[in-house]
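Tokens for chain A. Residues wanted.
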């Protein structure tokens, strides 16, 4: 009988009282664990985090909390091999894709651990300079940021059980706010194991880190006005969270990271032999296949000048044809599985829908699998679609609306720069757009045109060919999130991430009092 994963809440390990929901190996189809949150006293668990974990964290300075994050990172490093095994078994990922999740999470923790040193031996942050309130300089206003005295509830998506936990938890814990993580059920095992290892190591104050695996029922009901909730997942669930009374009536602060139809744009004026074309092609193929396209930041639309449509189509297709798909335990496999049968069905259905308005430029849907049974494994080869010509790009509304959360992208030819920008904006706000070109001025101008509708613009010129961090890679130094359809959220971005976990307040006082802060 597979293990029923325990929840850690209220400072104790608690098993759910129901039969639980099964987690599966998406390649072998075997049941590997179960999760269950039935019967947990969530109200008491949240209160414990608020009343025990919160004060203990807030008693520490940023430097001390940073040191705790560094210690957490060390513990995770120690168990890294186990995390890789869990990822292979539960997410069906090849080693390189596991690294994005596991090592990406550890790297993000390390970044915030170092930030603790920079913020130093203090327990609040000054926000800006004092501003004089009257004619005399004596009475002034100084804004301060103090940690919120609530909990941070994280509801995460299935595709990043490690990184999704730590990219949120690192800034929260550094800010002094206790964390309750609810991982997506499908891949909850890795999150649960990481929390278990950290709890067992006894690094964090009791109540600082809790995990609830299984149903989300009751989690939002347990929130109170000074709590915050950070959600990553689909737009549909985001709408449920946004309309919950905790948010609409009690002003619980909410951050939403939702889906997004991200673009890559080859700027006009590049010839077929331009290094920019090669850079675009390489990145598109990588983005389509990394984590089997199950990345919120993955490239979904590839915009190229009409004259280069066939050149780019052939070059991307040639790369995709070399991608071996199947069992991630086999060394020759480059791309593993989708997370489960439900996602496989959703991807196939989305692909069919997109095909009603596009042509197939590379068909991976029937690709032979390596070491995997197609009747069981949730694997699918990468598929490149295209809208044929610029008029087709205008007409194919599904291409600009539909996020197929798998190894699927569409080549979208455009007439001129203005047309390309109009097409990109039809995504209604995205997490990231990447630009490829050789003209620095044109790249900079285009980036500014797209900045308001994108959380991040990733600009690739040949001089950074070997140094850039990748279109879809979320770096803790840069903002993650996007306006509009992408959810309107903001995460990471260096120290900016701490703002969400602090409350801003204006202190109006004499210069002497302000100096005593
Ligand atoms: P999802 O179905 O919306 O689930 C996300 C999380 O919400 C899961 O933990 C889920 O729990 C929970 N949930 C479901 N219903 C809920 C409710 N009524 N109240 C509270 N929580 C609830 O999304 P997903 O399928 O896991 O993730 C795929 C989507 O996430 C894609 O569209 C992708 O673009 C997006 N995503 C965005 C980002 C980003 O940073 N912007 C990153 C990764 C993924 P259960 O699993 O138990 O149902």
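Reply:
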């Amino acid at each position: 009988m597979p293990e029923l994963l325990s929840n850690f809440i209220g400072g104790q390990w608690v098993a759910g009282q129901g039969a639980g929901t099964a987690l599966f190996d998406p390649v072998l189809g075997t049941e590997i664990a179960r999760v269950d949150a039935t019967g947990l006293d969530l109200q008491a668990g949240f209160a414990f985090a608020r009343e025990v974990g919160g004060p203990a964290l807030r008693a520490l300075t940023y430097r001390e909390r940073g040191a705790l994050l560094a210690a957490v990172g060390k513990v995770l490093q120690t168990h890294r091999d186990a995390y890789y095994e869990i990822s292979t078994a539960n997410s069906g990922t090849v080693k390189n894709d596991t690294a994005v999740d596991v090592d990406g999470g550890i790297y993000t923790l390390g970044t915030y651990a170092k930030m603790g040193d920079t913020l130093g031996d203090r327990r609040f942050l000054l926000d800006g300079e004092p501003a004089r309130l009257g004619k005399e300089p004596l009475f002034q206003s100084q804004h301060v940021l103090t940690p919120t005295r609530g909990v941070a509830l994280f509801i995460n998506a299935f595709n990043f059980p490690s990184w999704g936990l730590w990219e949120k938890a690192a800034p929260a814990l550094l800010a002094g706010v206790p964390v309750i993580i609810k991982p997506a059920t499908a891949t909850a095992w890795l999150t649960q194991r990481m929390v278990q290892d950290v709890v067992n190591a006894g690094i964090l104050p009791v109540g600082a880190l809790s995990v609830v695996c299984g149903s989300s029922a009751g989690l939002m009901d347990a929130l109170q006005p000074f709590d915050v909730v950070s959600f990553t997942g689909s737009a549909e669930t985001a709408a449920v969270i946004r309309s919950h009374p905790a948010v609409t009536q009690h002003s619980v602060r909410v951050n939403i990271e939702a889906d997004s139809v991200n673009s890559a744009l080859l700027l006009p004026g590049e010839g077929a032999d331009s290094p920019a074309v090669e850079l675009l092609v390489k990145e598109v193929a990588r983005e389509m296949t990394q984590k089997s396209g199950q990345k919120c930041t993955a490239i979904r639309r590839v915009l190229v000048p009409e004259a280069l449509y066939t050149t780019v189509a052939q070059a991307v297709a040639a790369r995709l044809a070399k991608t071996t798909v199947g069992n991630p335990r086999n060394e020759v496999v480059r791309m593993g599985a989708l997370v489960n049968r439900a996602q496989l069905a959703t991807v196939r259905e989305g692909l069919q829908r997109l095909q009603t308005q596009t042509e197939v430029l590379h068909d991976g849907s029937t690709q032979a699998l390596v070491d995997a049974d197609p009747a069981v494994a949730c694997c699918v080869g990468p598929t490149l679609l295209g809208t044929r010509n610029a008029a087709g790009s205008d007409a194919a509304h599904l291409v600009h609306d539909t996020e197929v959360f798998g190894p699927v992208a569409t080549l979208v030819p455009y007439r001129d720069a203005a047309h390309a920008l109009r097409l990109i904006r039809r995504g209604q706000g995205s997490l990231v757009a990447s630009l490829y070109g050789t003209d620095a001025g044109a790249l900079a101008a285009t980036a500014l045109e797209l900045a308001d509708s994108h959380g991040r613009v990733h600009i690739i010129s040949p001089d950074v060919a070997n140094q850039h961090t990748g279109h879809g890679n979320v770096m803790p130094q840069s903002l993650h999130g996007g306006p509009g359809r992408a959810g309107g959220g903001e995460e990471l971005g260096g120290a900016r991430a701490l703002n969400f976990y602090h409350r801003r307040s204006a202190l109006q006082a004499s210069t002497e009092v302000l100096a005593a802060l």
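The pocket of NAP is lined by residues 155-160, 182, 184-186, 216, 220, 232-234, 237, 240-241, 257-259, 296, 403, 405, 431, 487 (CB under 6 Å). The CA atoms of residues 159 and 294 lie 6 Å apart.
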